[in-house]
Every structure is written in structure tokens, then in C-alpha cells.
């Protein structure tokens, strides 16, 4: 754990989801789409999975290359672009298979719950800001399963925004929902560009969780210095305690 010194009290901690509250998993995106496609169109499943995967990757690329000025939009947009009737029973069955594929990769880090409880016990608000294709209902279900739902004051998902991290408006939206100034917010994430740089660009402090094995294509060539590095989620509470007590930074 290492961290910078700051005089502003921390009143809110906002977390990224994938690779932060939930440990990073390498996902075979084409297999994810095959799980859907073999239910929607078993005869042409391989080709459909390929098109859906390409459509998803293109949306992530546009989001990344626009610096978050354009979000991926919602998962439904991928189905609608493919001409799929998203109200049909066949789609709902296929979607259930897609979600089953994802389920093992969505469990919260075992330190997520105690970390959130520690922060809230100190009167600190907590939130989530995630770049995601999924609607809030999917994320809510995952948090319900893991007992986290009641531990967040605000959850914001880029699927429901015109923008995404690292765009300033994404971070502003969650700070406004929490009713806390950016300077009193800390953002915790596994991506130096999307999470740490984005948060710092509007005056938040950024804590980096350095565990995720991100593909090189998703790593912009841009130097970012986090305000602190947390090697495990529970370190976040210690870092916030140190900032709020005004004690000198501990360098480990
Ligand atoms: Mg992440």
C-alpha cells in the first residue's frame, strides 16, 4: 500500500465493478455469445456468435477511442442491430443462457463486503460507477446475491449514460447522486486510464487495484500516477483512514 498526502476529508468512495469489486477474469467473448446464439439460432449459431461478438467489440472500441465521450450503449442495442426480437420467448431463453455463462465470473471479491461495511461505519458514502453493457437490473441481481445491495448509496452504469469512463461527465453523475464534491470523493478501480485518470480529471483521488490482466489494446500510452495503490480491497479502508486522520503517508 502506498499513497499520497491530502488534506481534504474523504466523504465518499466510489468503486469500479469488473476487476475491482469483482476479481478480474479472462472471458472468451465469442464463447459468451455462442452461449446465446445456440439458443436463438442453433443452425447458424457459430456465425451469429461471431457477428454479435464483433458488434460488442466495435462498441467497446468506439467508447475507448472517444475517451468515453460515447458509451457502448445497452446490451439490447446489440440484439436490435442484429434484428433480434428482444421481447420474444426465444430471446429470453437465449439471454438466460448468456447470463448463466457469465454467472461464475460475477461473484464479488470476498473483501468487498467487509470493505464497504468499514467505510459506511465511518459515515462515508459508497457508490459504483461501471463501464458496462448490462442494465442496472443485472448488476442489482448480482449485488443482491452477494449481499452488497444495501451497501451502496448510488450505482451508475454507462449502459444508461450517453458517456462512459474516463469522460468527466460519468464521474460527475455519480458524485452528484451522492451529493459529494469530487474533491471529497475517492475512486477505486483496476484501470489506470478509465478509472484513475478519469477520476483525477475532475478532482477526485484515484486508488488503483493493480491486479487485472488487461489486454494491451486496452492500455492507452498515457502516464497516470494513482493517489494510492491498494493491493487488496481492505487496504482501501486503511488508505481512507490515513487520509482522514491527516497522518503522514505510509510508503510500503
Ligand atoms: Mg474494471
Describe the structure concisely for a colleague.
The protein has 252 residues and is of the alpha/beta class. It has helices at residues 29-40, 45-65, 75-81, 89-102, 112-121, 136-145, 168-178, 192-200, 234-245, and strands spanning 2-3, 12-15, 125-130, 154-157, 185-189, 205-208, 228-229.
Structure write-up:
The protein is of the alpha/beta class. It has two domains: 2-23 and 107-245, HAD superfamily/HAD-like (Rossmann fold), CATH 3.40.50.1000; 29-104. The chain has nine helices and seven strands; from the N terminus they run ββαααααβαβαβαββα. It has helices at 29-40, 45-65, 75-81, 89-102, 112-121, 136-145, 168-178, 192-200, 234-245; strands at residues 2-3, 12-15, 125-130, 154-157, 185-189, 205-208, 228-229. A seven-stranded mixed β-sheet has the order 1-7-6-5-2-3-4, with helices on both faces. Helix 1 (29-40) packs across helix 2, helix 1 runs antiparallel to helix 4 (89-102) and helix 5 (112-121) runs parallel beside helix 9. The radius of gyration is 19 Å and the shape is elongated. The chain starts with a strand and ends in a 7-residue tail after the last helix. Bound molecules: magnesium ion. The site of magnesium ion has 7 residues, from loops.
Amino acid at each position: 500500500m502506498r499513497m499520497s498526502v491530502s488534506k481534504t476529508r474523504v466523504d465518499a468512495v466510489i468503486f469500479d465493478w469488473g476487476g475491482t469489486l469483482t476479481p478480474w477474469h479472462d472471458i472468451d467473448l465469442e464463447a459468451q455469445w455462442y452461449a446465446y446464439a445456440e439458443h436463438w439460432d442453433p443452425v447458424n449459431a457459430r456465425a451469429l456468435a461471431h457477428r454479435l461478438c464483433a458488434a460488442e467489440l466495435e462498441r467497446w472500441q468506439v467508447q475507448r477511442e472517444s475517451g468515453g465521450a460515447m458509451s457502448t450503449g445497452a446490451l439490447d442495442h446489440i440484439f436490435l442491430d442484429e434484428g433480434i426480437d428482444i421481447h420474444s420467448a426465444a430471446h429470453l431463453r437465449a439471454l438466460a443462457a448468456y447470463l448463466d455463462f457469465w454467472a461464475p465470473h460475477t461473484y464479488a471479491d470476498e473483501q468487498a463486503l467487509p470493505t464497504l461495511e468499514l467505510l459506511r461505519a465511518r459515515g462515508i458514502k459508497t457508490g459504483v460507477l461501471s463501464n458496462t453493457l448490462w442494465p442496472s437490473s443485472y448488476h442489482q441481481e448480482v449485488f443482491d446475491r452477494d449481499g452488497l445491495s444495501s451497501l451502496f448509496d448510488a450505482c451508475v452504469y454507462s449502459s444508461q449514460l450517453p458517456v462512459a469512463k474516463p469522460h468527466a461527465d460519468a464521474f460527475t453523475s455519480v458524485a452528484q447522486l451522492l451529493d459529494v464534491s469530487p474533491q471529497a470523493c475517492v475512486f477505486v478501480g483496476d484501470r489506470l486510464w478509465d478509472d484513475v485518470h478519469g477520476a483525477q480529471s475532475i478532482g477526485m483521488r484515484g486508488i488503483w487495484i493493480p491486479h487485472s490482466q488487461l489486454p494491451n489494446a486496452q492500455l492507452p500510452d498515457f502516464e497516470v500516477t494513482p493517489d494510492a495503490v491498494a493491493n487488496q480491497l481492505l487496504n482501501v479502508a486503511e488508505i481512507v483512514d490515513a487520509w482522514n486522520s491527516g497522518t503522514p503517508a505510509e510508503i510500503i
